[in-house]
Amino acid sequence: MSSVEIIKLSELTVYLMEINENQLPEYFNDLTAAEKTRLESIHHPAKRHEFLASRSLRTQLFGLNHIHYTEVGAPYIENEGFISISHTTNLVGIACSSAFRVGVDLEFIKDKAVKLSPRFVNDSEKQLFDVSDPCDMSLLWSFKETLFKLAGRKGILWAKDLIVGKNEHGYTGTILGDGPGRQYQLAVSNFQHYLVTCNTTDATLIY
Question: For the CA atoms of the chain, what is the radius of gyration?
């Protein structure tokens, strides 16, 4: 069984597990019958590994409780509070909270984020982040992935509807475009060469 790294943040916990290809047969044993059927339809090797590892981590945390999805793709497990799932190369993570909805994202620092920056960076964020720096752009991208998961709706414009700022407590994330704005406190942790971002509070409404 793969070891699990735990990041505890106030009323939220993030569980991380590195994907070990030598343990894929063990991961398979952690799937429900429905998940074993679904795995047959996943043909891309990396996607199969991510699916296997995320379900193995789920089983370690919650047993063989099925992961359901809302109509906008948000995961949940019945009677287990709030969860969010993320995966990247060789790493999967599940964030959990019994107090509020959570979003989590795992990212490598990569040059591609700089090239994509015109699609997701707004003018106010250019005052806080260096659009030419892969570290800054990877972090901002990750924060917006977290906010996108919290938005709970389709049609999000990343540069317009997802706004990252700062206050006396650190980074904030605001979701606009669907009634009152919702603002969250955001946090970033480092795990080896990965960025781990999530919200650490419930939403505060902004009118």
Answer: 17
Task: Using alpha carbons, select from 170, 163, 111 the residue that is nearest to residue 140.
Answer: 163
Cα separation, 157 vs 120, in Å, equals 8
Domains of the chain: 5-102 (3.90.470.20), 105-206 (3.90.470.20)
Rounded to 5°, the CA angle 150-107-153 comes to: 20
* Residue 14 contacts residue 198 (beta carbons within 8 Å): yes
Residue 54 tokens read as 């995320």
Angstrom distances, CA of residue 69 to CA of 2, 6, 73, 200: 25, 24, 5, 22
Q: Is the CB of residue 149 less than 8 Å from the CB of residue 105? A: yes
pTM: 0.95
**Per-residue pLDDT, 166:** 97
